[in-house]
UniProtKB/TrEMBL annotation:
TM stretches of this protein: 53-72, 93-119, 131-153, 160-179, 207-227
Protein name: ABC transporter permease
Organism: Actinomadura chokoriensis
UniProt entry keywords in alphabetical sequence: Membrane, Transmembrane, Transmembrane helix
Source taxon at top rank: Bacteria
Pfam families: ABC2_membrane_4
Length: 238
């Protein structure tokens, strides 16, 4: 972890137009939660559906994509990353710093709003709210690692990330059981399912497998990003 790189990255992320997206999406969910509460449509089933479909399935991957690609992708595209790479800083430290920043942003703009929306909707009934907050947090770590790796490996990281989140996890996951099982969303939902007594929350992936896959994907994403970053100076020099 490099404090200087972290500070510069935070400043870049929160000072760009991305900050509007980081703030806008959580606000929509909070407003929706308040409207449902005010109209009396805040039963356990509805609350579970909102937290799962809006928080875990939509808000989380989109914010993780914005944060994960944004912490390093623009620097690679405009060449600013070369300034960092010329410093005597190990590549793994750069990647870990960028990943930590992405995770902090996802926690602040996805996990906390999910927690607040859950408290507005149903409080701590059946431990639904803390369960989803933890599920979003754990899923956010894995998503961030994947999207940071994509940003280092490809200039089309945002497009690829959207295809994965919207097509693979959402569309194909609704029709193909195999695709649903190979989904960060479902792995995070498995964590949530284990932590709540609410019957509407059900995952298709067993808890031990979900935990193993979440750890594996996070580790592989971090390692791939580090490996790819090490090759960038050579490619630039050529």
């Amino acid at each position: 972890m490099n404090p200087t790189i972290a500070m510069i990255t935070f400043r870049g992320m929160l000072g760009r137009k991305r900050a509007l997206l980081l703030l806008g999406l959580p606000l929509i969910m909070l407003v929706l939660a308040m409207v449902l509460r005010a109209t009396g449509n805040d039963d356990l089933s509805t609350s579970s559906h909102v937290l799962q479909q809006f928080g875990l399935a939509t808000l989380l991957p989109l914010l993780a994509l914005i944060a994960g690609t944004g912490v390093i992708g623009p620097e690679i595209d405009d060449g600013q990353i070369m300034y960092v790479l010329t410093k005597p800083i190990p590549r793994e430290v750069i990647v870990l710093t960028k990943l930590v920043v992405a995770i902090v942003l996802v926690t602040a703009f996805a996990t906390v709003p999910t927690l607040l929306a859950g408290l507005v909707l149903t409080g701590t009934t059946a431990q639904l709210t803390p369960a989803f907050a933890i599920g979003v947090l754990v899923g956010g770590v894995a998503y961030s690692a994947v999207f940071v790796a994509l940003a280092v490996a490809s200039r089309n990281a945002v497009t690829i990330g959207l295809l994965y989140a919207l097509v693979w996890e959402s569309l194909l996951g609704s029709f193909a059981p195999g695709a649903k099982s190979a989904s960060i969303q479902q792995w995070a939902l498995s964590i949530t399912d284990a932590l709540t007594e609410a019957s509407p929350v059900q995952s298709t992936v067993d808890l031990p497998l979900a935990i193993t896959l979440l750890v594996l994907v996070t580790a592989v994403g971090t390692l791939l990003a580090t490996f790819r970053l090490r090759s960038l100076p050579v490619a630039s020099a050529d």
